[in-house]
Write a structure and sequence with these properties.
334 residues, alpha/beta, Rossmann fold, eight-stranded mixed sheet, 12 helices, 8 strands, 38% helix
Length: 334
Amino acid sequence: MLPWLTPLWNPLGGHYWTLRPFASRRQLARRFAWAAVREASGAELPRPWSGRVTDERWGTVRLSGQLHAIAGAKSVLLNLHGLGGNSESIYLEAGVAAAAALGWSCLRLNMRGADGSGEDFYHAALTADLHAALASPELGGFDHVYVLGHSLGGHLALRLASEAHDPRVRAVAAVCSPLDLARSVAAIDQPRRWLYRHYVLQKLKASYVEVARRRALATPLERVLRVRALREWDRLTVVPRFGFESGEDYYARASVAGRLDLLDVPTLLVNTEHDPMVPSDTVRPALLAAGPKLDVRWLRTGGHVGFPLDVDLGERAPRELLPQILSWLANAPR
């Protein structure tokens, strides 16, 4: 067997847990799970959510998502996808169900363009979309906001917690999230991670195609479609679109690694030792400068946003990652 395939069959292997959700029938099963949660909690069926954000270069940019409302709820979970994902990504479903079990509403937010609308595309520090969602009329009636981000969505959640934000934000959690963008991009661009890199790039390119139908972009579509590395993607798309000087300038200015001492709300970071997309050695150096608001948990078993069903963070909640995380958010010391 090829060496890189071996971890797929190891229960502790990150590849196994990363790929397992895509090979299972969870997409079918989750519909029945949500129906059961809805019946037990009084939650409404998810309905489309739309919002707007003002961009200094392109004016008004539309946002979208799915709002799962609980009648009388005072708390809402802002649920964020990772790079190349969207509001329909499998890993967001567990957060919806865990929020409903606590009586919270939940907004699964599409970062700009992630819905295929062609409005725009986003980057790792574009918290303007989060601020716009929190300021929307649909979320205005909630007293408390909790933010949960997966992969790059977790990086965005951490950035939000490190800057001036809506005072209703009570706590933040990030799952399998990069901290140092330069280290993370160097890791995923390595040849042995070609499968994950190819998957993410195909999603990003599809989004760029739609934007190119609507707007004039700095880099021709034909050139972007030939991109084979994340660093190249950032250099050709993110850098000219958002006014960075270079890829290195983008990573230096956008990375949350140097801002972890600025977190001003309780923040949980859950990463895995065997994450094949965000390796632990790209995360640990940044943690040395973290402030007291950050609680870090390393899991031995699990992959990139994929985990076994018996994860225990020590919370009085069902032994599954998302119920454990939301319990932590609800009970985090202020």
